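Model it.
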Amino acid sequence: MYKKIIKKLKSYYNPKNIAGMARFGINSKNTLGVPVPILRKMAKEIRKDPAFAKAPAGRHNLALQLWDTKIHEARLLASMIDDYRLVTKSQMDKWVADFDSWDVCDQACMNLFRYTKFAQKKCFEWAKSERDFTRRGGFALMAALAFAKNSMTDKEFIKFFPIIKKYSTDERNFVRKAVNWALRQIGKRNKNLNREALKWALEIKKINNKTAQWIANDAIRELRQKRFD
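Modeled.
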C-alpha cells in the first residue's frame, strides 16, 4: 500500500501547481503540486480500505512511513489518515520539528493534533519555541482547538490569552499570522470568549509595536462583526 500511494502521488506531479503554491508562501522543496482535494479523496479511500478500516494501527504506521518520506504531499496525507488515539507526545514533537511550510503545520494541527489528549499542553510548549514553524504550530493548534467541537471550557481557552499577548510582537510573517488566527478563532467560539478576546485585543493594541497593533486591529475588526444566535 505504501509504495502504491507514493507512486500515485508522484503521478500527480505538476510544476505549474508548485509555482502557484510558492506564490502563497508554501515551501516548494520536495513538493509535487498535488491539490488538497485530491489528497483528501485519497485519505478517504485509505480509511475505507478493508486493510485499514478496522485497523487503526495499520493506518498509524502508514502515516509514520509517509511522513518520513519528507515529501510535502505525503506529509499532508499522513496528517489526514493517522489515528489521533495512537499519536504520542514524541511523535508530535518530531513532526513539529519537521514543519517547513505553513500549510503542513496548519493541516497537521487541524486534521490530527487538535484531537489528541496532549493538544493543550503542546500549545504552550510550542508557542515558547524560538523556531518559527514550531511557534506557529503552538498558535495554529490554539486556533484548531477553538474551531473544533470539544469539551474545553472557556477558562481553558482564556489561559491562552496571556501567551498570545506575549508573542504578539513576533514580526515573523508566519508567526504573527498564527497569533492573529488564534486570537480571532478563540473569540469566535462563543459570546463570552468574544468579549474576552476583544478585551485582550485592546490590551495588545496598546503595545508600541507595529506587529502587535496589526494583530490587534485585524482581530478587533473581525470580532466586533461576529454575531451569535
